[in-house]
Backbone:
């Protein structure tokens, strides 16, 4: 099995990038901290004064580009998944939820739906305002 040269430990806003070292005297796999990659800004910061080769930099940049596309795709699926989840919750409330279930979840569901509705209305109003100007 061929190991990758770099390993990406995914974090909220990017990844810690490690150089994979399997060619050491102990014969064990070592992960050497190499850099931090920021998905939002595209910034690559080296760790511990290490030097990054141009091939490693290209691989990290390619990973950032791929991760940005993956996150954009995931974001695009949030609204349809939310509609599906709201419909499933409505069906659950109507057909399966006990009175205790309703008491337990009602406030959290209503607050989340109110927050979502408020944000949608605000964004629609902002869009109308910008269309008028």
Residues:
């Amino acid at each position: 099995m061929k190991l990758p040269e770099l390993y990406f430990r995914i974090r909220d806003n990017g990844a810690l990038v490690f150089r994979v070292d399997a060619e050491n005297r102990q014969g064990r796999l070592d992960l050497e901290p190499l850099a931090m990659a920021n998905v939002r800004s595209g910034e690559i910061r080296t760790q511990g004064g290490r030097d990054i080769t141009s091939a490693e930099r290209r691989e990290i940049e390619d990973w950032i580009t791929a991760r940005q596309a993956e996150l954009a795709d995931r974001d695009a699926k949030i609204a349809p998944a939310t509609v599906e989840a709201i419909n499933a919750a409505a069906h659950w409330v109507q057909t399966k939820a006990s009175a205790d279930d309703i008491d337990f979840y009602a406030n959290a569901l209503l607050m989340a739906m109110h927050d979502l509705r408020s944000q949608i209305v605000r964004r629609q109003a902002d869009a109308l305002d910008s269309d008028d100007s």
